[in-house]
Amino acid sequence: MADPVYLPDVNILVAAHLDTSPFHQLARSWLHQASHFATTPITETGMLRILMAPLPMPAVSRDDALLALHRLRGRAAHQFWSDHVSLSSPVIDLRGLLGHKQIVDYHLVNLAAHYGGVLATLDAKIERSLTPSARRHVLTLNSH
Description:
Layout: E1 6-8, H1 10-17, H2 24-33, E2 37-39, H3 41-52, H4 62-73, E3 78-80, H5 103-114, E4 118-121, H6 124-129, H7 132-135, E5 138-140
Parallel strand pairs: 1-4, 2-3, 4-5
């Protein structure tokens, strides 16, 4: 069986690029070891948004943020997933979707499921909120 294509969420992408993140080493190591990974319009723009934000860390310049994205996309393991799925016709069970803060997370899990992939995240709450059938589309990284 082939390795799945992983969809790292924004937190992993940002942590991999900011050496001041407490998750930098974990995210960077995981991303460099992933045999296949994807980005989407949401994860790419989210990464740029947070890298360029002045708080809680000093902002990365626009040019440096775009260079980081360009390098990420230039890796042989990378593929780009267009985002044309909707929670109005979900691939996953949405029963665990209870609040507004879960919308983007569920959208990314739904997108990963659509492509037969796995959302990679640092946020254990995502996996815990999903139904058992949807959990196979999430990998929670931990530092233990």
